[in-house]
Design brief:
Low-confidence stretches: none
Distance between the termini: 54 Å
Structural class: alpha/beta
Bound molecules: 4'-phosphopantetheine
Shape: globular
Strand content: 15-25%
Largest sheet: 5 strands, parallel
Strand order of the largest sheet: 3-2-1-4-5
Length: 164
């Protein structure tokens, strides 16, 4: 191991998590086995209208990942690479659901590497969740559809309290 290799192998899983889904949790679970520490970083974007506040999204993530001793939740504003540099994180972990994700994710990964030398590790999503997106979950829940197989129970409870 070179002197420059960080002692703690850290990775960040960035996203909006509005709300966290079983697809996100699958990626977090698998990433937590590959790295010493996983930081799930909620992107705070005032320009985007979210269903849940940052604090609510954080609470849901904290509860959903409480059994993982090496996963912690944080928030960030600005560029993900600036967050990585400030927190000594050399790699971003992203789930890829389908080819349709690939173009944009590749573009961001190459941009992030060019900007700051931060690499991106792509993990293929569990096929069980390849169609899953927070936006679809919110839409189905708003219209009273059943999303119980798509999100953890604690998220389901909060979705049921949202007025359509
Ligand atoms: O869950 P999302 O909304 O698909 O997550 C997208 C996110 C937050 C990971 C991405 O938009 C991001 O990294 N935003 C931070 C701003 C940034 O770094 N933009 C430049 C990317 S090249």
């Amino acid at each position: 191991m070179s002197e420059l290799t960080p002692q703690v192998r850290r990775a960040v899983c960035p996203g909006s998590f509005d709300p966290v889904t079983n697809g996100h949790l699958d990626i977090i679970d698998r990433a937590s086995r590959l790295y010493d520490e996983i930081i799930v970083a909620i992107f705070v974007n005032q320009a985007k209208s979210n269903m849940f506040s940052v604090e609510e999204r954080r609470e849901m993530l904290v509860e959903a990942t409480e059994t993982y001793p090496n996963v912690r939740i944080d928030t960030f504003h600005g560029l993900v690479v600036d967050y990585c540099r400030a927190n000594d994180v050399p790699v971003i972990v992203k789930g890829l659901r389908a080819v349709s994700d690939f173009d944009y994710e590749l573009q961001m990964a190459q941009m992030n590497r060019g900007l700051a030398g931060i690499d991106t590790l792509f993990m293929p999503t569990n096929p069980e969740y390849s169609f899953l997106a927070s936006s679809l979950v919110k839409d189905i829940a708003r219209w009273g559809g059943d999303v119980s197989a798509l999100v953890p129970p604690l998220v389901l409870k909060r979705l049921r309290n949202i007025d359509g």
